[in-house]
Amino acid sequence: MRRLAACLALLLAGPLLLPDAAVGQGRPGQKKNKAEVATPEDYAAVKKLKEISGVVTYFNPTENTVTLRVEYNTYEPVAPKGGAQAAANRQMQTLLNQQQSLNREYQNILRIKNPVQQQQRLAV
Prior knowledge:
- With 124 residues, the chain is mainly alpha-helical.
- It has a domain at 85-123.
- Helices cover 49% and strands 9% of the residues.
- The chain has four helices and two strands; from the N terminus they run ααββαα.
- A two-stranded antiparallel sheet has the order 1-2.
- β1 and β2 (65-69) form a beta hairpin.
- The radius of gyration is 27 Å and the shape is elongated.
- 0% of the residues are buried.
């Protein structure tokens, strides 16, 4: 029974003792994504999070370092094809004007000192 427990403990401790053996393994021909370098602002934002999900790409317990890959979506406008470019530009300009107008109105509401009047203006 003791031998079985000792073998089991040794098998479980093996991966913890040699974690660097599996680092950097990948499939041949696998496309590598370019990783962005984190800025101090990024680290400050991560410190405020309660939890984060991602893929651990590197772990070194002797140096107390972990590399985590976090994926996120970005949205980029797609340029319309053909003669629709002018119409799309007009629509985009209209949306920008509406956004600026709403922002100005919101800033004016925030300048109101009376909270009841502020709420009334925000409710409209």
